[in-house]
């Protein structure tokens, strides 16, 4: 699958992730860079890639279901009145190079293209920071600059007629285990309550691990969370929830998500304390 050697990401002297820049995937997967495997400090893997239930899910990264009618998520496209349809409409996030690449983080330039057209130029930063002896933070910022010369709009299956499916933006696919992970937020419990909420953070707790996803800017915190647990374990942000998000020509969209990666099962107070520390660092 990988057309090159993955770039390791280290924290406190330990490799906690690998970043694949040029995956050798078919166009239907919407090829894009991604982090996998991501691990806790104790070595437990907390990402999944190419799972049988959704083979276009690729670890942790950025994926958008609809950029002006182009699919940068992978898999089928939801079409109003028709449902999920297999279309030849997929885009590619091309890794153009690293501006900086240190053991604990990197700065990357990417091009989002579809149908021979450049839509976005992206500036992505990823950094790892130690929080405690059992938790670290993955800090990911993506800046999408509209390079098309015209107005672009970002949509989702929800804006295209599928209620509850406002995925698109930052997305983390966790491993599927025998039991569904526990979901909780700053003030809510359970998948149904946290999904679709614009809470400061959302947590997914599995067998010996907890992931806490936090919006680190006001704009990011305004995006509702997309949460799945019973069907498959995954959490992401929703750039286009109730309506399409318009990006004028020459304008830039910026979001920053900080993910706490912890060994063990955190409670609400413990998750909140680590989020405060991670976002402030």
The major sheet is characterized as:
8 strands, antiparallel
Number of helices: 3
| Major beta sheet, strand line-up | 8-9-10-11-20-16-15-14
Helix content: under 10%
Spatial separation of the terminal alpha carbons: 35 Å
Overall mean pLDDT? 96
Keywords:
single chain; 281 residues; 8-stranded antiparallel β-sheet
Description:
The protein is mostly beta strands and 281 residues long. 8% of the residues lie in helices and 47% in strands. It has three helices and 20 strands. It has helices at 191-194, 218-222, 268-280, and strands at residues 7-11, 14-20, 34-38, 60-67, 70-72, 77-79, 83-85, 92-102, 105-114, 117-132, 135-146, 152-155, 169-173, 182-185, 201-205, 209-215, 225-228, 234-237, 245-247, 252-263. The protein has an eight-stranded antiparallel sheet with strand order 8-9-10-11-20-16-15-14. Strands 4, 5, 12, 13, 17, 18 and 19 form a seven-stranded antiparallel sheet that branches. Strand 10 (117-132) and strand 11 (135-146) form a beta hairpin. The longest helix has 13 residues, at 268-280. It starts with 6 loop residues before the first strand and ends with a helix. The relative contact order is 0.16.
């Amino acid at each position: 699958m990988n057309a090159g050697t993955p770039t390791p990401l280290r924290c406190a002297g330990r490799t906690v992730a690998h970043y694949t820049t040029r995956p050798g995937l078919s166009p239907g997967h919407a090829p894009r860079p991604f982090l996998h495997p991501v691990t806790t400090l104790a070595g437990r893997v907390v990402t999944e890639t190419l799972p049988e239930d959704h083979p276009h899910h690729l670890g942790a990264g950025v994926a958008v279901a609809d950029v002006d009618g182009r699919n940068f998520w992978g898999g089928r496209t939801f079409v109003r009145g028709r449902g999920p349809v297999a279309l030849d409409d997929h885009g590619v996030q091309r890794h153009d190079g690293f501006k900086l690449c240190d053991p604990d983080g990197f700065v990357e330039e990417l091009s989002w293209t579809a149908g021979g057209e450049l839509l976005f130029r992206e500036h992505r930063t990823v950094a790892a920071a130690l929080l405690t002896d059992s938790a670290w933070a993955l800090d990911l910022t993506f800046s999408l600059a509209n390079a098309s010369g015209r107005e672009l709009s970002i949509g989702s299956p929800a804006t295209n007629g599928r209620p509850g499916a406002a995925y698109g933006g930052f997305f983390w696919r966790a491993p599927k285990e025998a039991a569904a992970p526990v979901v909780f937020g700053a003030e809510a419990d359970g998948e149904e309550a946290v999904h679709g909420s614009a809470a400061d953070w959302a947590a997914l707790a599995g067998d010996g691990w907890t992931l806490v996803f936090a919006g680190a800017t006001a704009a990011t915190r305004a995006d509702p969370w997309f949460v799945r647990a019973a069907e498959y374990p995954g959490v992401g942000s929703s750039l286009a929830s109730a309506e399409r998000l318009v990006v004028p020509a020459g304008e830039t969209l910026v979001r920053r998500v900080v993910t706490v990666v912890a060994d063990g099962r955190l409670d609400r107070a413990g998750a909140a304390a680590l989020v405060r520390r991670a976002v402030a660092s």
